[in-house]
Design goal:
single chain; 444 residues; alpha+beta; 2-enoyl-CoA Hydratase, Chain A, domain 1; 2 domains; 6-stranded mixed β-sheet; globular
Length: 444
Amino acid sequence: MKYAPHLRALALLTSVALLPATTAGYAQVDSRLSPEFAKFFGVYERIKADYVEPVDDHTLIKGAIDGMLAALDPHSDYLEGASYQRLTTMIDGNYQGLGISVQMDEGAVKVVSPFKGSPAEAAGIKAGDYITHVNGKLIYGTDIDDAVEQMRGPAGSSVRLSIVREGRDQPFDVTVKRGLIQLQPVTSELKSGNIGYISVNEFSKDVGKDVLAAVKSVRAKAGGRLAGIVLDLRSNPGGSLDEAVALSDLFLTQGQIVSQRGRNRDDTIYYDAESVYPGDVAAGTPIIVLIDQGTASASEIVAGALQDQHRALIMGERSFGKGSVQSLLPLTKDSALKLTTARYYTPSGRSVQEGGIVPDIRVPQLSDPDEALRAKYAYRESDLKRHLVNEAALKDDDLESDTKNDPRFTETADQLKKQGIDDFQLHYAIETLEHTARIQTAQR
């Protein structure tokens, strides 16, 4: 998402300010406005005059704005009060709660992904889960802000969530102990074989700088002999477009990173390598990028750029498929419009909308006992109502190709657990890089 004031924000604010505070009469609507807009005034005046109870202007105007945005794509939204504060808090990276990213889907609260290391992840909440009740209270059909507010609470307190999961016959309850969510956008460590592991959990401010520091850290721990890097973008719901560009630029020395193309000429922007960081900070070091169905938006930009520029091998599962850019357009000091203003494209001109990023090597998460069911009922952008359609008109067969079994991956979660493997995708990526390092050593 990019965060910048926009002239259209002023235009929208002006139009809202012109809405009448009292009934004006259907025939008195400015003749320059369209007949459709005149209908809006007509409905407004009838509600003000005839509804069973008095209704204040704020309720009606907010309802009208919400209704307009509900007719668009699922990522456009009006933010004020609690919802605006929640977005600001997420950007700052600290809050008390469960640590999950959620999306409204036809009146239901659906989990996009739990944040890594969060109480929600520890409790076993998965991407694609529906949350139907909070402490026994039905939240279906409620406002997303109300649902989130009910799930939040002081660190140390507990909340009972009722979950509906595709592939399971019955709903089940999960009790989650709330915590202080101090989002660590980037974590790193040195794995066996001098393989650097860098996990990027979301794209907040300074992620590019943090990844640069992580590369330097794992290289120092390896004594300068770094054999490979695993860049983990799994369950990363996205964030700042600028930070996605910065991270990509760390490893690219030429060519395009991403382009965004909107309705107007001013909305078409090209982002190129060498615009943020000079050179490749890991020159000569092979990179594997891990993705899954929770890899969305800004994280898909990074995966797509490194894949198209042949700088990294993409491994894991097909990503979420959110190929649109949202601009935050301020209206007042405590409200804003989050509006989809452009689609973005990878360097080769691919739109990831609906189809997502397809890994070079599909590696299922065999260490997850629910992996087969989760793959069958995977939840992605294409499952959202009113999602933008990919201009390439993808076929269902293309989108479902990642559900086919691979004869290389047959071990069960129990078998892997006995081997001490609790993250098969990461294990396979490290093994691949270690094998590559041995080949390179033998060639030298």
